[in-house]
Amino acid sequence: MKKVLFVTSEAVPFVKTGGLADVAGSLPQYFDRSEYDVRIILPKYVCMDDSLKEQLRFHSRFYVQLSWRSQYAGVLEAKVDGITYYFIDNEYYFQGASPYNNIYEDVEKFAYFSKAVLEALPVIGFCPDILHCHDWQTGLIPVYLKNEYRKNEFYQNIRTIFTIHNLQFQGRWMIQAVKDITGLPESLFVSDKLEAYGEANYLKGGVVYSDIVTTVSRTYAYEITTPGGGEGLDGLMRARQKSLFGIVNGLDYEVFNPQADPHIFCPYGTGDMVQGKRENKRRLQQQLGFPEDEGTMLLGMVTRMTSQKGMELAAAVMDELLKNARIQIAVLGTGQTEYENMFRHYAWKYDEKLSANICYSEELAHRIYASCDAFLMPSLFEPCGLSQLISMRYGTVPIVRETGGLKDTVEAYNRYDQTGTGFSFCNFNAREMLSALYYAMDIYYNHRDDWNAAAKRGMEQDFSWNRSAKEYEKIYELL
Fold this sequence. Notes:
18 strands; alpha/beta; 9-stranded mixed beta sheet; 6-stranded parallel beta sheet; elongated; 17 helices; single chain
């Protein structure tokens, strides 16, 4: 039995701010349990829902020596769907209304968490073959393991994998402060170890000291080795290329299942996709105040309204698109004020064509995925992306920019050999995006059978966690 411990700052169902929580909480359930004992460890945040805290049971307590500080650490435990979760408890570090606070607080918080995880292993009686660390918040674990803990026999055979979910977030802070916080020697704060551009960099530490580095799509694994996508660390990523792997995230096919989704108006499968989507579309048009028109393309966007998600491209063409095209657009999300206000403005100006829902609603998100004909994701960069996988699962044809996981998961439509699951454009350019939209609309309006065939091919793709887990098992075998 191979033992793996996922180390993460968030995991469903206990705490979630983004896609990391879905990966860390969902993926462990899909390993072959006859061969893998996969467990999860994360902080016990004060902001966790009280009903979830009630599931936790006290396990043990100990003290963590963090530089000159001696800090309390409690360990609590819970089981969900047969997976064991451990929680590091320290209310001083894990207080606050959200898991993440200011960076100067978080660098100390996650230095403490990293050391507490390593100290907890003999206390909980679990010596993993592999510590699978996720994002910058756990970047110091491979650093501490190789520089402080290897001399202890308990830790000598532990190997590390470090997964980058978004290279943009690196955990950077002043070197002198991080030296004081971590107690790590000055010799580690140099350019080939923890230092980058005059700052200490937690993510860089994880990349330098882990045995294998992974990220969440094949194309993103390449992009981070280039100056355009490497966020200042492309040289390091090129140096690690032989041990850098890209594995596309999976999707929970139980949660996102058009045949049994409690949030949508009418269940359907591949066999009755056309009829099922038609009824869902009619009902969503009613809900959003659109004219009920089965023949008008309904375009969905469920997104963070930020520059990363390509909102400046949408802003550049939205007026032209709504003025000239036969289209309805359902938008859901929050983000930068300028983009929220842009969508509010066009919802006022074209009230029968655009519905701006500046909030987040799980129910409405599912209804948009199920009811729309097409789904727009014009991202500047996208390490993996889940929305395009969800939209295909519901027979909603994605229109994406060819970057990261979008390029890996959406096959461009080819009307001549009738292949492809969506439409794509290459450059981060508003006119190019608009051309892709107009091409998609041409197929939708003039070749509806071809459109429906592409939608059905999308529904038949396998992007389940089972597929991802098998790829990770191969990586574990390498270690």
